[in-house]
Amino acid sequence: MRNLQKENHRNKTAGDWCKILGWTAVPAILLIFWQYAAMELDQPWIFPSVTKVFEQLLHPLRDHYASGSLAGNTLVSLLRVIIGFVLAAVTGVSLGLLLGSFRHLRFLVEPLIEILRPLCPIAWLPFAIVIFKLRTLPQLFGFDYTKTIFDEIQLGMIFVLFMGGFFPVFTNTLDGVAGVRRNYISLARMLGAHRVQIFLYVYFPAALPMILTGLRQGIGLCWFVIIAAEMMTGASSGIGYLLIYAADQSAMDIVIAAMLIIGAIGSLLNFLTRRAMRASLHWYGKEY
Amino acid sequence: MEIQTTDPLQKSTAVEMKNVDKTFLSDTGIAIKALVNINLTVRQGEFVTIIGPTGCGKTTLLNILAGLNRADNGRVLLAEELQGTQQIAYVFQHYTLFPWRTVMQNVSFGLHMRHVPRRQRKIIVRQLLRQMGLDKFKEAYPHELSGGMRQRTAIAQALALQPKLLLMDEPFGALDDATRGELQLKLIQLQQKHGLTIIFVTHNIDEALILGDKVIIIANQPGSILAEFDIPVPQPRQQTSKEFTDCFLKIRQLLSHYSACQFTRQV
């Protein structure tokens, strides 16, 4: 058996080679083509070269037009997402668990949810700006100006992120709880579990795969939403803001650098949440 | 219908059902009679097996005894020491274990829910696992176990609360013959050791005869008791002995006669 595996290792299949090439040669060819085309065109304000973009990525702390740096703005966006998403996750999971286990409550709220859920979170932004103006998180707690990164956390942004993150988390949790096999509930009851215990030790673990799926979708959507929200009027910081501001200044190298950062963080979030899911849910899909 | 709390039962009686009816409404609104006029007495320490075709209301009968379903009519009497759900354990046919818990965590579930201290829990569970031959698998998850091991775990899980009455719904239905035989023996040992009262549902005549002190035959649609046999053969039973085969034939004949009647009636 071990020998066989070794042999497999030595003779890579066509699939293995394609995987390796997909991670190395294909991006390399694209980069070379890009560099060549940019040098031929020689109009960096329209199509900057690879080297110019990577020069920006290598100096993430450089301040651009008094709008802050790539790193600083990325941090602002991430902090907004984390705060908005955590709020959405906590509310979404607890409401989902609650409504999932009380059918009648679910019937009461479901139509409302179904109307609000398909609404694009960005559509909430003008409403949020009118309601919250430009109030920030520290102002909510009575501080006027803290001279920290938290001054960039506008309540309107948090609201929009909450709207983006809440529905995937909530609906997945709800479906997860509603889909728990009746047998597990009967079993727990026969073994003497009371209501709260059934909630904690049956509904929650049984729904956990769906809850985590919801969280994963939610954080991904939040990252989409924040970029879009920061590109709207009213924003004054964040990687999305820097991106649109740099575009106005025809600084395409910064635009593309920002795009690469946004993409990289998106895949990182996806990778991390998938790893966390796999580690905690080895049993899922193996019910018998 | 109420499960009675006063005890008009004779000393030796564990469970009594009197004129119990149960009708379900199907999704399309058709009333399906699951049980009709069930009369049943189970003595303490008795091993009762119930045979009948699939869908004859056997599971409903167990569910009523367990308090998971309610009878429409009639009375269900439980001996005083069986009052309270923890005195009754139930092993289902499917989904008998929580897939997110290890064998050990599954077995200790009931004790955990009753706030038995961790150390005491461990002692009880360890002993049960040893009895069931599961010590090597205590950290395994249900999906990593064979069918036989899962049912052992399910039985250990049910026994952890030291119940007086054990209800079992075709627990060995999905197992191969060898494993099934092994678990049947184990179950008889456990029953004798703990003085358990067991009500065991199966559709296998052999199994019913190997295990039961009393065999109850339920007819199909509507579910009603067709016959009751006392099996006077002492344990361990030889399946090839004359007494055993006599009983087998008697039940076989009864069932074939009954299904022949059913068939002609339908035609």
What are the defining features of this structure?
A: 0% strand; flat; B: alpha/beta; 10 strands; 36% helix
Question: What would your notes on this structure say?
Answer:
- The complex is a heterodimer of chains A (about 290) and B (about 270).
- By secondary structure, chain A is mostly helical.
- Helix content of chain A is about 75%, strand content about 0%.
- Chain A is built from 13 helices and no strands.
- In chain A, α4 crosses α13 and α5 packs across α12.
- Chain A is flat.
- The mean pLDDT of chain A is about 90.
- Chain B is α/β, with parallel strands linked by helices.
- In chain B, about 35% of the residues lie in helices and about 25% in strands.
- Chain B has eight helices and ten strands.
- Chain B has a six-stranded mixed beta sheet, sandwiched between helices. Chain B has a four-stranded mixed beta sheet with strand order 1-5-2-3, with helices on one face.
- The two termini of chain B are about 35 Å apart.
- The model of chain B has no long low-confidence stretch (mean pLDDT about 80).
- The chains are: A mainly alpha (about 290), B alpha/beta (about 270).
- At the A-B interface, α10 and α11 of A face β6, α3 and α5 of B.
Number of strands of chain B: 10
Shape category of chain A: flat
Question: Using DSSP, what is the number of strands of chain A?
Answer: 0
The arrangement of helices and strands of chain A along the chain is HHHHHHHHHHHHH
Shape of chain B: globular
Of all protein chain pairs, which has the greatest interface, and how many residues does each chain bring to it? A-B, 23 and 27 residues
Helical coverage of chain A, percent range: over 70%
Judged by helices, strands and strand pairing, the structural class of chain A is mainly alpha
How much of the polypeptide of chain A forms β-strand, as a percent range? under 5%
